[in-house]
Q: What sequence folds into this?
């Protein structure tokens, strides 16, 4: 099938070719909802075609979904799989009912059921989507996709390239391992995949105009891997992290100063391609001391001779600044769990053991009745959470529905960035500040999916 001719059924969205470089893209720009259906897929991740993958498109990666800041987005998500599911829009401040968390905000969707998600993204930037039910299965098999919320007034670039970074855990014959996750992994740093990909390719190559300006969106959707990214061959800067523009831009990552992207995190990079046709920009991740190439951008045509200084800066998103003087403080401690077997309840899968806990309590399971919020907040008030990692492993801690600001760390100076996912390193204590400006019950968990499913999960309440 020719990817440039592909059209999504409903007519509500078309796959854009040409101007939108990168993976499959759908643009939602109409009143009728986008039709998205979970389905099995097969794909050449290696020389052998991998069966039993999960996507939203026939035998292709989940599409990059484009929406526009301030415009209504809606999608009818249909479950074409035998297992239950739900869909979550990571990092986007949606109304609670649209958040896709089973039992907390909606019932899991059975086979052939459809749920209409609709919301108006207030914040522009790079986000992503993934199921929140049967996550260990469905995410491991491919169902993680990028969302681009276009600015009302986007900076003009010559190419906008979105890259979905993730692994797959395959055997040497290209088929999924029988155990997508192991107990040994879940009790420690997580179970890593065996095949590292970018947009489902082991060596992702994309052309971009020589001497042109490129917006490169890197999205870590892997259930486990913490990327240490290095970029070579271009001038430029990091302009946004986790969707939100940086007030002070950061330099491009180098081997000495790599960019850490942990599961769930994103980076927007503005770069200028080298002038020569065929010259390349390389994005790699560090595996120990070795650089492993992920993405190559190759210069095409005569140089456009563009200048990075011509780029219009991104406008900050409309986030409320927490009032640190009046903020109420709460401690949240992430650590081991008292021994437990975990409950196998509900339809959304569980690890079967608990290894992890928040404030000494492992999450009882998505479907357990009567679970209590970790913190109850008053709508409109400011809060400071003191997040403490009591374990030797790293945890990307993610909060739904509310965007927070990183205030401090016991391990050194931190940039005061807005985010939805903060990586806690070994024995780290990070303080975050937020305004409880979105009512509802919001999931709060580690984004190493095995940790989440073996106890490191909970929720907060805003009323
Ligand atoms: Cu990206 Cu609760 O998830
Ligand atoms: Cu989320
Ligand atoms: Cu974790």
A:
């Amino acid at each position: 099938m020719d990817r440039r001719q592909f059209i999504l059924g409903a007519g509500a969205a078309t796959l854009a070719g040409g101007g939108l470089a990168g993976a499959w893209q759908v643009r939602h720009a109409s009143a009728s909802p986008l039709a998205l259906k979970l389905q099995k897929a097969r794909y050449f991740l290696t020389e052998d075609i991998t069966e039993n993958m999960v996507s939203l498109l026939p035998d292709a990666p989940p599409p990059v979904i484009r929406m526009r800041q301030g415009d209504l987005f809606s999608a009818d998500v249909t479950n074409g799989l035998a297992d239950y599911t739900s869909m979550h829009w990571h990092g986007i401040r949606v109304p609670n009912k649209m958040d896709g968390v089973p039992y907390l905000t909606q019932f899991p969707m059975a086979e052939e059921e459809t749920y209409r998600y609709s919301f108006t993204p207030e914040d522009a930037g790079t986000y992503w989507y993934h199921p929140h039910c049967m996550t260990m299965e469905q995410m491991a098999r491919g169902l993680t996709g990028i969302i681009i919320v276009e600015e009302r007034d986007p900076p003009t670039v010559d190419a906008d390239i979105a890259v979905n970074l993730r692994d797959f855990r395959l055997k040497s014959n290209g088929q999924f391992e029988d155990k997508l996750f192991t107990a040994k992994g879940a009790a420690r740093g997580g179970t890593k995949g065996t095949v590292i990909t970018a947009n489902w390719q082991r060596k992702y190559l994309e052309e971009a105009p020589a001497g042109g300006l490129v917006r490169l969106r890197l999205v870590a959707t892997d259930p486990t891997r913490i990327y240490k990214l290095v970029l070579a061959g271009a001038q430029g800067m990091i302009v946004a992290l986790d969707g939100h523009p940086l007030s002070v831009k950061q330099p491009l990552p180098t081997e000495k100063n790599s960019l850490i992207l942990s599961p769930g995190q994103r980076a927007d990079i503005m770069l200028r391609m080298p002038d020569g046709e065929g010259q390349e920009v390389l994005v790699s991740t560090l595996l120990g001391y070795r650089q492993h190439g992920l993405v190559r951008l190759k210069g095409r045509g005569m140089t456009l001779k563009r200048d990075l200084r011509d780029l219009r800066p991104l406008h900050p998103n409309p986030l409320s600044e927490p009032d640190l003087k009046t903020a109420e403080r709460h401690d949240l401690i992430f650590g081991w769990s008292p021994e437990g077997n975990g409950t196998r309840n509900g339809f959304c899968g569980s690890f079967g053991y608990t290894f992890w806990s928040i404030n000494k309590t492992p999450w009882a399971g998505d479907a357990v009745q009567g679970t209590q919020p970790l913190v109850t907040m008053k709508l409109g008030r400011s809060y400071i959470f003191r997040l403490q990692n009591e374990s030797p492993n790293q945890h990307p801690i993610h909060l739904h529905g509310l965007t927070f600001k990183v205030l401090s760390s016991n391990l050194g100076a931190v940039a005061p960035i807005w985010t939805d996912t903060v990586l806690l390193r070994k024995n780290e204590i990070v303080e975050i500040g937020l305004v409880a400006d979105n009512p509802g019950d919001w999931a709060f968990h580690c984004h190493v999916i095995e940790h989440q499913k073996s106890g490191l999960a909970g929720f907060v309440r805003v009323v």
Notes: The CA atoms of residues 406 and 432 lie 5 Å apart. The first helix runs from residue 135 to 140.
